[in-house]
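Hey team,

Filing this mostly as a record. A colleague (T.K.) asked me to run one chain through the structure pipeline before their review meeting, and I want the input and output archived in the tracker in case anyone asks later how it was produced. No errors, nothing strange. Just documentation.

Input sequence:
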Amino acid sequence: MSKFRKKVTEHPEVSTASLPDIVFMLLFFFMTVTVMKDTTLKVENELPNATEIKKLEKKDRVITIHVGGPNEQYKDLLGETPRIQLEDKFADVSEVGPYVLGRLAEMPEELRPFVTVSLKVDKRADMGLIIDIKEVLRDVGALKINYTTYEGDAFMNMH
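Output structure:
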């Protein structure tokens, strides 16, 4: 009779030679797709609540204007009156038009008709300043305006 032996199979070791390549590919991928925060907020921006809201889908077609009172570090210098912030600097109403036109010029021509100006306005800001901004936007042809809000009960905006 023949002798039956159990076959012993050895498993080869896992090669880790390609592991550094994979790690660097992932690193480069995340470096290229990650968007860094582009604006440091210098104004207080407690957004109002609203019940009927809609999310803006395409962020590349949005020009953002912040309006609110200066932060604590700027209050001694600028006071408490609401200010306009365009990117990382404070601006006057007269600077809004050239800023919007400049941002429109940077965009591809086929996207320009679809650009929305998003106003992120502190709920304690003066409506007169907002009306002035809207008039300037109308003068430069930026007619699609969005007010950024939080979802919630609109009656919570009243103090």
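Quick notes for T.K.: Residues 19-33 form the longest helix (15 residues). The CA atoms of residues 105 and 140 lie 12 Å apart.
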